[in-house]
Write a structure and sequence with these properties.
Length: 202
């Protein structure tokens, strides 16, 4: 194991921790609460604002999970359609983006099941994703390709924890899974992820 490969996950998570902190992921007060209230009062433009605020993060999440831009766009669209249809039931017990990520996770899982049944012979293959040769892009490419070796649930848990810097409790709420299951995915998946990333670097 080289020093560079040992630091790969740490470099990845540190970079994304700074991004998450800047994006306001850890605010106690829901920054989207006012827009949700306005939409429930009949302001349709408020939902358009919610889309503009979150479409980049949702698309980025799905692109990393699916490895395919066209599929990510389709599932992101499905996510916002379902969110619109269900928003009247949102009670603010979690932040809006946590609730939205839960919908994205379910849409991704549904898409994966459909695709797996349609293309069972292609299961487990790594997608060919276009990246530059810049060092940072190479790091993200290694991480993305390594993630594709995991089954969907563990893939999502590792991405949310290591790249989005969500806590164990937040991921459990998003994915509607027991806390112990989330911890197990991380404990078992992280060493294997490191091995995959080292393999791409050799």
């Amino acid at each position: 194991m080289t020093a560079a490969s040992c630091g790969t996950l740490e470099a990845t998570t540190a970079t994304n921790a700074r991004t998450a902190a800047k994006s306001g992921d850890y605010l106690d007060v829901d920054p989207d609460g006012d827009l949700v209230t306005r939409w429930k009062a009949g302001d349709e433009r408020a939902f358009e604002s919610l889309i503009r605020r979150h479409e980049g993060r949702v698309f980025g999440l799905l692109l990393r999970m699916l490895g395919n831009r066209e599929d990510a766009e389709d599932v992101a669209q499905e996510t916002f359609i379902k969110a619109y249809q269900a928003l009247h039931r949102f009670r603010g017990e979690s932040q809006f983006f946590t609730w939205l990520y839960r919908i994205a996770w379910r849409c991704f899982a549904d898409h994966h099941r459909r695709r797996k049944s349609e293309q069972s012979s292609a299961a487990g293959q790594l997608p060919e994703v276009g990246y530059t040769t810049h060092e940072r892009d190479q790091l993200h490419m290694d991480f993305a390709r390594a993630l594709m070796n995991f089954e969907p649930e563990r893939r999502m848990v590792l991405h949310l924890h290591l790249q989005r810097e969500f806590t164990h409790h937040e991921i459990a709420r998003i994915m509607d899974r027991p806390l112990g299951t989330i911890k197990s995915h991380i404990q078992r998946g992280r060493p294997k992820l490191q091995q995959y990333m080292e393999a791409w670097q050799t």
